[in-house]
Prior knowledge:
This protein is an alpha/beta fold. It contains seven helices and six strands; from the N terminus they run H-H-E-H-E-H-E-H-E-H-E-H-E. It folds into two domains: 4-117, Rhodanese-like domain (Oxidized Rhodanese, domain 1, 3-Layer(aba) Sandwich); 122-210, Rhodanese-like domain (Oxidized Rhodanese, domain 1). The strands form two sheets. A four-stranded parallel β-sheet has the order 4-3-5-6, with helices on one face. Strand 1 (56-58), helix 3 (67-78) and strand 2 form a beta-alpha-beta unit. Helix 3 (67-78) crosses helix 7. The longest helix has 13 residues, at 189-201.
Amino acid sequence: LKSPDEIAALFEAAGISENEPIVTYGDFFNQAGTLKSPAEIAAIFGAAGIAETDPLVIYGDSFVNGYDTFAFWVMSYLGHEEVLLLEGTRADREAAGLEFVSAPAVRAAVAYNSTPNLGLLTVESELADEQLVDPRTPAEFSAGHLDGAINVDSTTVIGIDGLASDSALAQAFSGLEKDEPVVVYSSRGGVASIVWYALFDQGFVPGIMIVG
């Protein structure tokens, strides 16, 4: 976990002001609930004044909802050049002297030129020998899951202020081979992204599959 001074330094280095353009979780999806194309998502960020070369710091109030981890996955999927996910809480930001305001910043629109990392998104028809991870609760997993999947409840990879400890993550992922590809699947992108981010943090090469 970063100290308040380190948090402030990250924001300053990224050129982040106290109120930034707002891009919401729902903006990434079509009305049918499917993920928008890389070009469509890139257009959203460009309209918000964010270019692919801008350093980004993604943060939220908690990891539980998966909004910040999903945003990190989206930026990785787009091939964003420099993006960090800041763990911690709102109290940590305020302790660093960052003021929370309600009005978003207004930035001039720019062109966002993405170089998508298509390997981060998997569709069912492309599944081969990947290790499958179901991030739902044990009860949901027991009610029905993809054949061969293992259950890693997303709540088991979360600690007090961010990811769980390395030892807890090692235990959660003990049924997986690090040198084999992994796909986390769920109908909820936020839930899938929590486990995806934890796998990424631990040196796995994971992808996400959003199922209906």
